[in-house]
Amino acid sequence: SGFWSYDPAFLATAACESKITYIDGDKGQLFYRGYPIEQLAEHSSHLEGAYALLNGELPTKAQKEEFETAIRYHTMVHDQFLSFFKGFRRDSHPMAMLAGAVSAMAAFYPEAFDFKNAEHRKIAIIRLIAKMPTIVAMCYRYGQGLPFMYPRNDLDYSSNFLYMMFATPCEPYVPNPVIAKAFDRILLLHADHEQNASTSTVRLAGSSGTHPFAAIAAGVSCLWGPAHGGANEAVLKMLNEIGDESRVDVFMQGVKDKKYRLMGFGHRVYKNMDPRASIMRKTCYEVLDVLGKHDDPLFKLAMKLEKIALEDSYFIEKKLYPNVDFYSGIIQRAIGIPTEMFTAIFALARTVGWLAQWQEMIEDPDLKIGRPRQLYTGYAARDYVAVADRK
Ligand code: CMC
């Protein structure tokens, strides 16, 4: 009963009120709690951004220390988790492992189900932000047959993640500060993006009152797709498939003939420029400078694609600009992160946004379960036919 409208893919439907993130798609602007993303990328860090997204304000010095200490305290996963991981095939996609592992967190922390209790809610959020780097690194190490590295709490959030990815028990790994900062910026820029597909999934799943880690696991699953978080992986696959600068023109013709899309281009909301892409582009050059990788053939190929697309009327008319994932994939590859890990790292970053949005929804006293309507296009009522009489 009541009035409702048909809006497939939610092109024109706001499903919630939110105070967390604001995007002005036409101007190409993004704000976390009112703070422009450019200023945060320049001066802040992923954890500071996380605090603001979760609490509405940037932390004071004391709040920052308290938050970071709490995160450090919870970086280890339950020892039983090691056995849990060993049930996966070694060649599992990291996102398949990650979705399973985040779901399993609900089994290890049943008390988080009592999320109406503010203390339980807070600790559940801290736990997940603290353990995601450990779990994501485990997804990588397990696939490689490498031993899991325990977190190092003397390192900052991003350096610790890179340590767990690349160190071995016999060879200590100290991340280069420029690389660690670039990685931290990738996390910060991906931390929230208002009601995107995975965040909407988390809200819808969470609206039933399910365990918070189960709701976040639903977000991980949604993020996996190439139209969303899988885009940075798809960018690298695309570059590898093109293979050589001499094949760019043929490839671009295929895009215009709509045989396939130019991955890392276009955005549902940004129809001017993705502000995150401009920051990532600059960071990309910084990282390649430090690593001396400007001559990397894949990077040169990417820059050629970018140049052609920015000058081509097909892309200009359709308002297709590079998005954040066009560059973040190139940076991650330069750092040595394998392509199949890119989406898992996006999930690591977006965990903050998912949790902030879930928390905002749960704290709303008027929360109702989400329940879209449909436009039924199937058969009208008809009689059951016995199996012997069916044609
Ligand atoms: N390459 C070529 N043509 C494209 C592309 C592209 N990447 N993206 C959109 N178009 C064309 C599309 O064919 C359509 O043309 P027409 O009007 O002639 O039918 C027009 O542009 C509008 O496309 P749409 O699919 O209706 O637009 P959308 O808002 O539904 O899609 C998108 C947004 C991001 C899914 C899409 O641009 C896309 O598939 N991009 C490639 C994947 C990608 O990079 N995704 C990452 C998004 S940013 C990270 C994130 O938020 O997760």
Automatic annotation (TrEMBL):
<comment type="similarity">
    <text>Belongs to the SdhE FAD assembly factor family.</text>
</comment>
<dbReference type="GO" id="GO:0006099">
    <property type="term" value="P:tricarboxylic acid cycle"/>
</dbReference>
<comment type="pathway">
    <text>Carbohydrate metabolism; tricarboxylic acid cycle; isocitrate from oxaloacetate: step 1/2.</text>
</comment>
<protein>
    <recommendedName>
        <fullName>Citrate synthase</fullName>
        <ecNumber>2.3.3.16</ecNumber>
    </recommendedName>
</protein>
<dbReference type="GO" id="GO:0005737">
    <property type="term" value="C:cytoplasm"/>
</dbReference>
<keyword id="KW-0808">Transferase</keyword>
<dbReference type="GO" id="GO:0036440">
    <property type="term" value="F:citrate synthase activity"/>
</dbReference>
<keyword id="KW-0012">Acyltransferase</keyword>
<keyword id="KW-0143">Chaperone</keyword>
<keyword id="KW-0816">Tricarboxylic acid cycle</keyword>
<comment type="similarity">
    <text>Belongs to the citrate synthase family.</text>
</comment>
